[in-house]
Input
Amino acid sequence: MLMAAPLIDPRIRLRHLTAFVETERQGGVAAAAAALGLTQPAISKSLAELEDIVGVALFDRSRRKLELSGFGVMFLRYANTVVAALRQGMNALADAQGAESVVRLGALPSVEVEIVPQAVARFASEALGRRVHVESGPSPHLLGLLRAGSLDFVVGRMPDPGVMAGLTFEHLYSETLVLAVRPDHPLGGQEKLDLSMVESYPGLVPPRGAIIRPTVEALLVAAGTGRLAREIETVSNSFGRAYTLLTDAVWFISRSVVAEDLARGELITLPVDMAASHGAIGITTRAGNDFDMATAALMAAVRDAAYGRVSP
Output
């Protein structure tokens, strides 16, 4: 005789899962409460109730910063799936009722200048074109939104394999980082430079947690430079461009971001071997996710824009 599968504990409510998912994504109770429009005691109560129901501690509270326990890491994947699936279900009902729907795309800095604008323009000209929301920011922020179902997919550099549980990556093309500077930079005009020679200049670098930060750090270590003397962390392309033109800063940035600036001669690249920074660019989605026709069309437009690009 087959035994019935155990039922989901009826005490678990959506508020428990959203409080748990958002607390992890925001890095704390206060930020989660602000994001959800609730009070901190309400979030803390939901987390305590959820831990009581599942019978294990989902967070390690022994450290200054709230972090997931081993059980929490395990449970997060499934909690994200539930919340994302429910959000997709609500969107599907809205579509069926004729409500205006939105395709939500996350764009990392490496693609928000070239690939994504071309893809959105192409998508908007098609019959399936509908309202598009483009969210930019560092990888942890966008992947958190993707896991929670607030984004349909993310375009940019491949995430670290350690954070890919429950996600899939489709490779589109590869590119390197460059060292961009203003044309009259003191190091400009050199035939060949060693990376260690930029140590005394301000460096515009991605923040800790950004996908390319480990690549930048590895390049500096390999050149015998542990870190730059003056680091300015940013994921803003507009700030990076303005600051590089204004100062002697050296900007560690994906080539495609500054391709137009290089073509116009407004920025130049330092002749440093950056082959080790080669990285995959593509589309990250939730594993097993089904896409409606509009989302699939925007993803196809991203692929077309990527395949049509001219490699440097």
Remarks:
- The radius of gyration is 22 Å.
